[in-house]
Amino acid sequence: MKVFIVHAHPEPGSLNGSLTEAAVATLTEAGHEVRVSDLYAMGWKATVDADDFGSAAGHPLDVVHDSRRAFRTGTLAGDIRAEQDKLRWADAVILQFPLWWYSMPAIMKGWVDRVFTDGFGYGVGEHDEHRYGDRYGEGTLAGKRALLSVTIGGKESHYSDRGINGPIEDLLFPIQHGILYYAGMDILPPFVLYSTNHVSAEDFSDAAKSWEQRLLTLADTEPIPYRSQNGGDYEMPSLRLRSGRENSGEKGFGLHRRVARP
């Protein structure tokens, strides 16, 4: 299996750094190929601008259309093309990051903004009255697996169904469903470590064992059963979930998971 890890933490000796090192060692020892993009070490440019699109950049700049032209003509900046090539190469993608302000660090969001260009991450497939492109389960990255490995300073209870910060599945939904599943990937349940501001050696040893087990089952873990856009669950062209497809009383993000029928 080919595994691409995108790592976002400014301190190499951090818990996130240790988890990435453990992932590389575990996966390599198990016979998998691994590539890592350490965004801070790379000095990754997190902002989209005209330099990303070379000669395809318009005046005024139109990010959507200019990125599509650059993607089609091969004039995207070299660092963007390199990351797209890593995504094409990979069978599985791991995003390793701390939860900052309820989301990924800005440098990782900037990686998404620049790498998931029109024609690659979105804007794929036919758009008409019967189909709104290839996305949410389809697209350029279909067939690949994605896993979030997230460290959180707060307690697990704070991120529970009645926790003050909201359920972790809701907080990660924009990343898992809105970015990775949107581009076609199968999303595995996240690996989340809580209360990471004070991690003892014993705590890390236990966490490392759990992380190793998740990594060794990367190919076999059942993905989150998100509904595909073009699988018949949504009305066209409104893309609203058809009546009766949900569990009784279900609402919010949970609507977009398939219901297990008896």
UniProtKB/TrEMBL annotation:
<dbReference type="Pfam" id="PF02525">
    <property type="entry name" value="Flavodoxin_2"/>
</dbReference>
<dbReference type="InterPro" id="IPR003680">
    <property type="entry name" value="Flavodoxin_fold"/>
</dbReference>
<protein>
    <submittedName>
        <fullName>NAD(P)H-dependent oxidoreductase</fullName>
        <ecNumber>1.-.-.-</ecNumber>
        <ecNumber>1.6.99.-</ecNumber>
    </submittedName>
</protein>
<dbReference type="InterPro" id="IPR029039">
    <property type="entry name" value="Flavoprotein-like_sf"/>
</dbReference>
<comment type="similarity">
    <text>Belongs to the NAD(P)H dehydrogenase (quinone) family.</text>
</comment>
<feature type="domain" description="Flavodoxin-like fold">
    <location>
        <begin position="1"/>
        <end position="215"/>
    </location>
</feature>
<feature type="region of interest" description="Disordered">
    <location>
        <begin position="222"/>
        <end position="262"/>
    </location>
</feature>
<dbReference type="InterPro" id="IPR051545">
    <property type="entry name" value="NAD(P)H_dehydrogenase_qn"/>
</dbReference>
<keyword id="KW-0560">Oxidoreductase</keyword>
<dbReference type="GO" id="GO:0016491">
    <property type="term" value="F:oxidoreductase activity"/>
</dbReference>
